[in-house]
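Entry for zinc ion complex. Fields follow.
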Amino acid sequence: MKQPIRIELPMLQPKMSVNAYLFLEPEPVLIDCGMNTAETFELLKAELQKHGKSLADLAHVYITHAHIDHMGMAGRLAQETEAIIWVNPYTLPWTKDLAVQWQKRANIIESVLIKETPPDWENPMLSNMQSFFQQALACWSAVPSDKLKVYEVGEVLPFGGGEWEVLYVPGHSNTQTCFYERARKWLFSADMLLPLTPTPAIEMKVDAPDEREISIVRLLESFERMKRLEIEMVFPGHGEPFDNHRQLIDVQLSRIQLRKAECLTVIQKGKSSFFDIFQQIYPRAFNIFTLSMLKGYLDLLEIEESIQIDNTKGYRRYLAN
Ligand SMILES: [Zn+2]
């Protein structure tokens, strides 16, 4: 079995990229497919052409999770090729009523931000939210149901000459699955194992769309599970393939503990609002990833009861115990 061909594709965030992976044998398949943009479409087309194939030869596309950079292009590929799009049950709603799902996710993020924002402060993040979400939705395409198939957790998917077991790995996203080839010990890790620590996305629970998932807890659980897995090569959703997954997980776990401790110190020094803590932890790095990361650290501190939450001023204030 040959290693998959890594195709680096653009993201909404400049200077960042997402990986799609291509197997040519026994038939062309993709693992994830980037966003629905002209640039991504041309890059996928060019990569197939480079190997004497065309997009029309694409037989299957396997999607790891319901994030725009991994599946935005799926609907367009379904429309313009004969390819079957495969998703897990958690991602299925995102192939259909996309705008509805997207709005639910936006509502959860918005409600988190509102709770963190003092009533007298016009939070720039909140005012930019809707335009950001509209911009993102424009790079996502719904998948026609006749081209769609659902794979189950635990199922074995045959592609690329291997037998890929589907593992459910919530944390970065609770829609996320990895594909594991037991014989070769290869893993398509999606955003579970990355060269940089995956962010615990602010998202709704899969079974209760009005409630927020405490993603950092899921992420830590999934890390422990991944550590037990024998892996020789990781093909991550972003960045270059790597082989030292246990070492990488340990580094990322200790970094999470370190950053959590830094947050506690900031709170002990008297910073109490989310955005004041944010300024200390991530000066000049205001984006959805750092936002999710900080929420995760604060979730951990709250769960461990190192801090308490005071809501008496109309927003969440973090106080040291
Ligand atoms: Zn993702």
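NOTE: The mean pLDDT is 95.
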